[in-house]
Write a structure and sequence with these properties.
This is Phosphoglycolate phosphatase. GO terms for molecular function: phosphoglycolate phosphatase activity. This protein is of the alpha/beta class. It has two domains: 144 residues, HAD superfamily/HAD-like (Rossmann fold, 3-Layer(aba) Sandwich); 57 residues, DNA polymerase, domain 1 (Orthogonal Bundle). 46% of the residues lie in helices and 12% in strands. The protein is built from twelve helices and eight strands. The strands form two sheets. Strands 3-2-1-6-7-8 form a six-stranded parallel sheet, with helices on both faces. A two-stranded antiparallel ribbon has the order 4-5. The two termini are 27 Å apart.
Length: 247
């Protein structure tokens, strides 16, 4: 897949769909803090690995590296985007080195009761994550749910024109929609980030805020940032109760 999809290209591809294609439903699931509780199992280790990588490759102190990691994550949605854009870091090497995560499978916190709803949802299921594809596949395999998903759209798939475009990039979402030759209205994004959901809603996706893996105090803060979400759930098992008025 080459080039960058515009909203007009996505709309044109939808117009050319046969009637059966217009009935397709596509579920996009964020990975961390949506399909599993990532805070203790992954985030603390990834943050530490990223800080160490930045300190080593940019020759800065640990504190300076940690400040850069957080600053680029807040500005771009992913630390890697800032490192590539401003420092010429090799993206593949960074993703590999910062997601080695020995012992990840033993630390995973999987709620199988919640996950059990996924195969009962009508339509295709994709994982749409700012993490590397190999990391996502590793978690899906450990959870025993890889076979429920059509595919994984990871950080590598957000790379074009030598730049990464992670969530909440609307360009990347349009690119995904065009890749499947569907309209945004045929997609539901399930994510724990209000910013990601707001961007998706603006281009026509249905959106679900999955807040169950956030502490109550954090939920109250995040709730104030919600914009035009289709539904709010505390667990994935609540998805079947939602009516998204599929077109």
């Amino acid at each position: 897949m080459s080039g960058c999809c515009t909203r007009y290209q996505a709309a044109a591809s939808c117009k050319n769909q046969p009637p059966a294609a217009l009935k397709r439903r596509v579920w996009l699931f964020d990975l961390d803090d949506t399909l599993h509780d990532a805070k203790d199992a992954a985030f603390a280790y990834i943050d530490k690995a990223m800080t160490a990588y930045i300190a080593q490759h940019l020759s800065v102190s640990t504190q300076q590296a940690d400040d850069l990691r957080l600053r680029y994550w807040q500005r771009y949605g992913a630390t890697l985007t800032g490192l590539v854009r401003h420092h010429g870091i090799d993206g593949d090497h960074f993703l590999h080195e910062t997601h080695l995560l020995p012992g990840l499978e033993q630390r995973l916190r999987i709620d199988r009761r919640q996950l059990g709803v996924i195969p009962r949802l009508k339509g295709e299921k994709w994982v749409y994550t700012n993490g590397p594809r190999a990391y996502a596949l590793r978690i899906l395999k450990a959870a025993g749910i890889s076979h429920w998903f059509t595919g994984v759209w990871g950080m590598e798939q957000s790379l074009w024109l030598a730049q990464y475009h992670p969530k909440p990039s609307q360009q990347a979402l349009r690119r995904f929609v065009a890749h499947l030759n569907i309209s945004p209205a045929q997609c539901v994004l399930v994510d724990d980030s209000p910013g990601n959901l707001a961007a998706a809603s603006q281009i026509g996706l249905k959106t679900v805020w999955m807040c169950g893996y956030h502490a109550p105090a954090e939920q109250r803060v995040l709730r104030r940032r919600l914009k035009n979400v289709s539904a709010v759930i505390r667990g994935l098992d609540e998805l079947q109760k939602q009516d998204f008025h599929w077109r």
